[in-house]
Amino acid sequence: MSTTLILIQVLNGLQLGVILFLIAAGLTLVFGVMGFINLAHGVQYMLGAYLAVWLYGATGSFIAAFLLALPLALVLGLVLEFLVFRHLYARDHLSQVLATFGVILFLNQLVEVIFGPAALTVEVPQFLDWSFELVPGLLYPAYRVALIVAGLLVAAALWYVITRTRVGMLIRAGATNPEMVSALGVNVRQLFLVVFGFGAMLAGLAGVLAAPVFSVEPGMGDDLLIVAFVVIIIGGAGSIRGAFVAALLVGLVDTLGRTLVTDGLRLAMDASAANQIGPAIASMLIYVLMALVLFWRPEGLFAAKVTR
Amino acid sequence: MSDEAQPLGAAPAGPRPAFGLIVAVAIFAALALVPLVSGVWGGGWLTSLAIRAMIFAIVAISLDLLLGHGGLVSFGHSAFVAIGAYATGIMITEGVYEMALILPVAIGAAALFAVAIGAVAMRTSGVSFIMITLAFGQMVYFALGSLAQYGADDGLTLWSAPDVFGTSWLASETGVYVTVLGVLVATWALVHAVVGSRFGRVLRAARQNPTRVAAMGYSVTRYRLVAYVIAGVIAALAGVLWAVHAEFVSPSLGSWQRSGDLIVMVVLGGMATRNGALIGALFFVLIEEALSSITHDWRLIFGPMLVLIALFARGGLAGLLDRVQGPR
Amino acid sequence: MSEVVLQLEGLRKAFGALVVTDGVDLDLRRSECHALIGPNGAGKSTLIHQISGLLSPDAGRIAFEGRDVTHLSQAERAVAGLGRSFQITSILPEFTVLENVALAAQMRDGSSFRFFRPAAREERLNARAMEALGIVGLGPRAGLVASHLSHGEKRLLELAIAVAGEPHVLLLDEPMAGMGRAESATLTETLRALKARYPILLIEHDMEAVFSLADRVSVLVAGAIVASGTPDEVRVDARARAAYLGEDHVAAP
Lengths: 308, 328, 253
Fold this sequence. Notes:
The complex is a heterotrimer of chains A (308), B (328) and C (253). Chain A is globular, with a radius of gyration of 20 Å. In chain A, strands 1-2 form a two-stranded antiparallel ribbon. Chain A has helices at 3-34, 41-59, 62-83, 93-115, 142-164, 166-176, 178-183, 188-210, 220-235, 240-268, 271-296; strands spanning 131-135, 138-141. Chain A is built from eleven helices and two strands, in the order H-H-H-H-E-E-H-H-H-H-H-H-H. The termini of chain A are far apart. Chain B has helices at 17-40, 44-69, 78-93, 99-121, 126-145, 173-196, 198-208, 210-216, 220-246, 256-269, 276-294, 299-312, 316-325, and strands spanning 156-157, 248-249. In chain C, helix 4 packs across helix 5. In chain C, the strands form two sheets. Chain C has a six-stranded mixed beta sheet, sandwiched between helices. In chain C, strands 2-1-4-5 form a four-stranded antiparallel beta sheet, with helices on one face. The two termini of chain C are 36 Å apart. Chain C has two domains: 1-81 and 168-253, Rossmann fold; 82-166, Rossmann fold, CATH 3.40.50.300. In chain C, a hairpin with a 2-residue loop joins strand 4 and strand 5. At the A-B interface, helix 4, helix 9 and helix 11 of A face helix 5, helix 10 and helix 12 of B.
């Protein structure tokens, strides 16, 4: 395995990592602050991607599509919150699972009805449709680099909001000790709404950014949602820092594993056997990682909740 | 508030056992009549639908042991179905046709997986438990989908039915039908025996108040783990039946949507009731069939239905039956 | 002096900066009732949680019948013979009263990994449960669903569950919490009878009950024992009065 190939895989891993982070960030806050398990969070990501398809087609400008998609993703999130989710905060987890599962079925189907079942693609915007020469002879698409940079910028902004602003302080306090926050006279409902809308918008942003890279299709958010759960479990529920570290870790392990495991097995067994077993093992790596973390630290790497 | 204490040793809370038994016997009798009726109308379609419904009922009943009685929201239950089905598919592909060999392998694989996954998942509770079971279920789904030599994502066709101790009992649809019905009845009886047993009592108590149960001297995790293994093995058995019935297995058997469907079946029917999971599974398959015959986009109707059920009708269909029957 | 059955040595527990158990040494001897009193927030329940295994101490040692149980789980300690009641009622609300207690009896009666025979029809378990219910006077309520009991009856059920587990000692966390005067008086007599069978570590705010039942009294303030002795000694102990008794006696009717 050449170092250039590994470098490319590392970049691909980071790319998956930042997308996972954008999805997991909202999810972990919603879960940490509200104790709410939202299976339909992956749908927000899908809606973001479809908004990009639709708005890019309608305006012809990726920038315009980007700028319009974010508020629309926010509005869609708030509408869902108003119609369904706010009635679930006080319910048990099983009700939350059932209702949000229903929302997924509905929206996946709705998207299929509107846009068709086939996978759609979004053109890479022209101003980013060129390649970096990272090392001599190795080209890497500029859009993908931009995606990674954008993700890191959002992570930095999020870090600033969470650690340096009043709202952020309330969110952190809410994730650690919800009773105390409401005892302080903060309108928890309003705080929930802010967190929820914010999380929905981040997932939508992930969808918009991912649209030119991945194929856009109904149900695209569901598999990623489950990986985002893995990220949250590893990082610790309610912790943005944990989500960031775990998302990059999971992105890298998953991407690198897919090439390295098979190569590694070839050293130990004959090539055809390695080619058969390798992919199966590689697909299990992140879950094994999750199991190891759980065994070592059941509350995750950076648990936010205070254990009584 | 009732003032008068009931006589000693009175039945535990819930509808009168006799009523539940009558309902169950009626359902099983109706299912037994399906192959006879389908000779007159519907033909293979009706039998096939009934087999599918019964297999899901087996899985749903096993899930209810965790969900309803154990309070463990397992969102990865379809993985066990897939493990059972793939054990069958792979062994038949490799030339092993004898059920007496396939069954122990399927059960053993499911039990091993349940112990390994359960031991990790039981370290947490609540939402984390849901996410972890969901994630491990997805792991099975992806792992099966990457088995290039066994059809990968496209799945695996079983070119031959397995033998049962050398006989071709499972080669005919009637044989399959009778077997599936038999396993369903046995599962129903077994799970209800387990629920009422000493073990089941500890499991049910731990759902209500795990701290109290631990303070009584029970290691709650061990009981839950054993329940997880029992439920997983039953689901794998259903997976074996599925492979035999469909003559085809694919990773989608273990998809997380399937796990979601299973939870819906149990809740729809009514959790921790005598016949809830059974009725819920049969009803679910019928609704799915009916709605999808009306429109391809049946989930547009079914999705909002789920939301409404979650918000307003958690008692399930069995709850409705109880209300018809009147208060205890 | 009779044999020590339960011994705490240098027990410490802190939640962050808040020290809730601050180097507690305490023992419980055969056939005595040792009462632990102290103002709210003194760390009494936290101490019971550490003895029963619900919480683990940061430092120190718990010996039970000569055996170090500091690192045993809650369930293992219950099996070893540490039976407890909870300050905030902790019962199985959906089970009948009988089933609540029969489950506790089941723990002492062979394996619970039995999967087929209906547990509700096991006469031996039900008989044991009825016996425990009889001790606390809940026999006539056996068939009722536990959540339908009155508050006082739930407190009695707590006690019956603890007794049915055939403990070697009883850790009782405010058994009379929220009870009326008459109920408390009845329960005091019940506990007096139980005292003959089990050593009891009693946390209680009802001073009348404490001083009529206890052979020894220890006063816990801010996580530390400030006074310990016979009821008469503690009654006149200056530190105990200052910390606790004075105000409470004034407040009592």
